[in-house]
Amino acid sequence: MRSRFLTRAISLPALCALLVLSGCALAPGMKFDASTGIGMSAALPPVAEITPALARREAQEYAGAAAMAPLDALIGEASPYRIGPADVLSVIVWDHPELVVPNLTYDVGATAGSPPAVIGAASMNVPGYVVAHDGTIQFPYARDLKVAGLTEGEARALLARRLAPYIHDPQISLRVVGYRSRKVYVGGEVRLPGIQPVTDVPMTLANALHGAGGALNGGDLSHVELVRAGRRYLIDVPHLADRGLDASRILLGDSDEVRVPPATDYTVQVMGEVEKPGAVPLRSDGRLTLAQALGRTTPSQVTSDPQQIYLVRPGSGSQPTRLYHLDALSPQGLAAAQLFPLQPDDIVYVDVAGVVRWNRVISQLVGGTTAASSLERMARGN
Fold it and tell me: Which PANTHER family match (predicted)?
């Protein structure tokens, strides 16, 4: 009898101590504790309660940060096309067919000005002169004519002055028929990735994306990357209108690179007591609220604690790590979750209900699925 009493006396305090210690154990029943940090010398930042007012403030800050992205260098007015090396020029001096060289013909229909495989065999041949790497063309009586950097009108006037000593009032038609000196590269999640020539039609971001067939379903137009001269710009195309802009005002230049990233590059992590934990991509417009992330991952109705939902926003640069708490059982909490904007790399954690954690700890201590009844029998001394 005394032995059984001592067993009960020792066992129950030991079990209670283990249950208390289990609050900071990683398993079973991992619990989010925002008051301490394992292995951290400095205390974690305070936990902010997610309310409708806070959610609206966060949404305004997020929109304001996007509006402050430095895009001024990309905005400009279109200017006339200027001839460059490798361009193909069509030059016709009216009433002087002898100045047309018949074997200098280029297919401008299928190859955008590239020489055809067989001279004269192209379906759409025009007399043409390729601008040399030094920016010149060779034309009868004009010798080496420097045309690189000139517009069509300026090159036509220059040629007319060169021919004036030989031809009275020369009437000249000069135009670019093959645009090969400037190009942009469009890649990533688009239907037709590849090189697009810059022509006399201004090459804007809208034209480049349209020329590539638009973004695929898995493309993220809210994080379009533009690389120019080693500098990287991030463009939120769907929300350019929020700052009074549109993609047709963003001019592209020679060797610009445009990339539409996959939506999976920008995700939030949802962990804890949810049925589908893991990475959740942002929507196609680059937005995702806390309620939408929880809706996609489905918190467990059996094991989760809707009053203990936490959000960790990792710090970057001078920005510190932020911690948030949501009580999804309150009407205000539900309204706030629908408004609260998530950002890429955010971590959402749905905590486990207290009774479930209790049962998990006891199950490991006594084994089996009848933890509660086993504990009860031990307390009675059976």
Answer: POLYSACCHARIDE EXPORT PROTEIN GFCE-RELATED (PTHR33619:SF3)
Is 0.85 topped by the overall pTM? no
**Burial status of residue 121 (CB atoms within 10 A of its CB: 0-12, 13-18, 19 or more):** exposed
pLDDT in tens, the chain (382 residues): 444 433 444 344 444 443 444 444 444 445 556 555 544 445 567 899 999 999 999 888 876 665 555 777 788 888 999 999 999 999 989 998 888 765 555 555 444 544 444 333 333 455 588 999 999 999 989 889 999 999 999 999 999 999 999 999 999 999 998 899 999 999 999 999 999 999 999 999 999 999 999 999 889 998 999 999 989 998 988 888 777 788 888 999 999 999 999 988 899 999 999 999 999 998 877 889 999 999 999 999 989 999 999 999 998 777 788 999 999 999 999 999 999 999 999 999 999 987 666 666 656 655 544 555 555 555 555 5
Rg (CA), the chain: 35
The domains spanning 19-49+266-367 and 68-78+182-264 adopt the same CATH topology: yes
CATH class of 88-178: alpha beta
Q: What is the CATH number of domain 68-78+182-264?
A: 3.10.560.10
